[in-house]
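Q: Start with the shorter request: fold the first protein.
A: Done. Sequence, then structure:
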Amino acid sequence: MAAAQLPSRLPSVGTTIFTVMSRLASEHGAINLSQGFPDFSPSSSLLERVTHHMQNGANQYPPMAGVAPLREAIAEKVERLYGARYDVESEVTVTAGATQALFTAIAACVRPGDEVIVFAPVYDSYLPAITLQGGTAKVINLAPPAFRPDWQEVAAAVNARTRMIILNTPHNPTGTVWTAEDMAALARLVRDTDIVLLGDEVYEHIFYTGRHESLARTAELRERSFVVSSFGKTYHITGWKIAYCLAPAALTAEFRKVHQFNVFTVHHPSQLGLADFMRADPGFADGLASFYRAKRDFFRQQLEGSRFELLPCDGTYFQLARYDRINDMPDTEFARWLTIEKGVAVIPVSAFMPDGTDHGLVRFCFAKNEATLSAAGEKLRAV
C-alpha cells in the first residue's frame, strides 16, 4: 500500500539552523557557541522553590492563563520598569516559551491576505507562523554594521493590507537596541491605523547602552501591542520553555482563544517557583545587564589578536563577527568548517535572511562560563 501523500504547508522550511549547528557541535566535539543557551545553572533557590511546589501537590493543571501569583509578579515588574499597568486577570498570560507566544499572537491576528512587516535579519519562527495563517511577510532588510530601521522604507511598505508589524529589541542576532526615536517613529507610522504590533522583547534585561524601549513603555503603542518576554533568557532556564505575553484586554481575549487550544497551560510547579523567586529577589533581572556586559567584554578580549572583526553589540548575549580576513567561504560553509575543523560552533547570519543574503557574518553566543569562552578564544585566535 502506498504511503499517503501530504502536500506541505511549509515546503521551503527545513530543520532550524540552531538544531543543525548544535547537532554538528555534538558530533564533532566542538565548543557550542551557536545555539543561545547558557552553560551555567540557574539560582539554587529557584530550583528549591520549584521542588517545594512539586512536593506539595502542584502537579495538576494550573489555570489556563497562568497561576495568579506569577501573573501578579509579572504585572508588578512591568509597572516598576515601564510605568505600565496591566490587569492581572485580563491582560497577562503565561505561555510555553516565547516562540509559542509569538506564534499564538500571529495566529490570533493574521488572516489570509494580510501582510506582516518584519525586519531582517529575522528570527526564524516568525515567517513560518505568518505563512501558516495565510499571511504574507514584507521584509525590511537592516544593513550592517548598524542594523537600524529605515523608517521611510517602513512607511513605504505599509498599505491597506498591513495587519501587523513585528519588532525584536534588543535584536537577535545583531545585538542592536532600538531607541526612543525609533519608537516615536513607529508610533507616528501606526497612528490612526488598525495595525497591531508584536514585540519580541525576550532580551529586555540584556542591554549595554541607554535603556530598553519596551512597547509597554508608551501608552500609544501599548494599546495596540502584544509584548512577549521570556523567563528562560532572564533566569538562565531556557529548557523550561516559560514566557509571558502582555496585551490589552481585547487583544488578550483573542490571544487566549488560540492559546487554550494550542497549549492550554504551562508547567504548574515552575510557575509557582518563579513567582516565589521574583518576589524574593526582585532585583535579579536588574543585574543581568552588568552580568552579561562582563561576559561580552571578556569574550571580545578573547578575540583580540584574532582575524575576526567584531561588530558592535549593544544588547542580547550574541556577538556578530566578520571573517573575510580568514577566507571567502559563504557563511554557512564557514560555520560548518569552523565547527568541524576548528572546534567552535557558530550560526551563519544568512540563516536569518529570508532571501539568503550573505553578509559574511557569523553569530557567537557568549552566555557561557569564562572557562568555555577562554577555551573558545584560544581556538578562534588560532584560526
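Q: Next, the second protein, separately.
A: Sequence, then structure:
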Amino acid sequence: MSQLCNIEAMDQIHKWKADFQPDRLVAYATAGEKIKGATINADGAAFRSRKNWYALKFNCELSPDGESVIGFEFLVGDPVPQEKWDELGLPAVH
C-alpha cells in the first residue's frame, strides 16, 4: 500500500510542477502514516527533488483489491532545512 501511494505521490508532484523531479519519498518523516482500510494519510511526508527535500502531505485511497490508486490529494510544503535531514532520516544524495 505504502509503496504504491509513494510512487503515485512522486508522479503526481512531477505532473503538477515539472520543475520537481522527485526521486525519493519518506511518508513518515515528521509524523507517522495513518492507515485506515484502503486509505493512507501522510501528513508528515517529505520528498527529495534535485538534491533538496520538501515537506509533503498526502491522502491516498486504493481500490478494494489494493492494486490501483482511486483517489489522491497532496500539498507540497516548504523545503526541509538541510540541518534537519539527519534527524528526520532523510538521506542526502549519494
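Q: Describe the second briefly.
A: The chain has two helices and five strands. The beta strands are 22-26, 34-36, 39-49, 52-62, 69-79.
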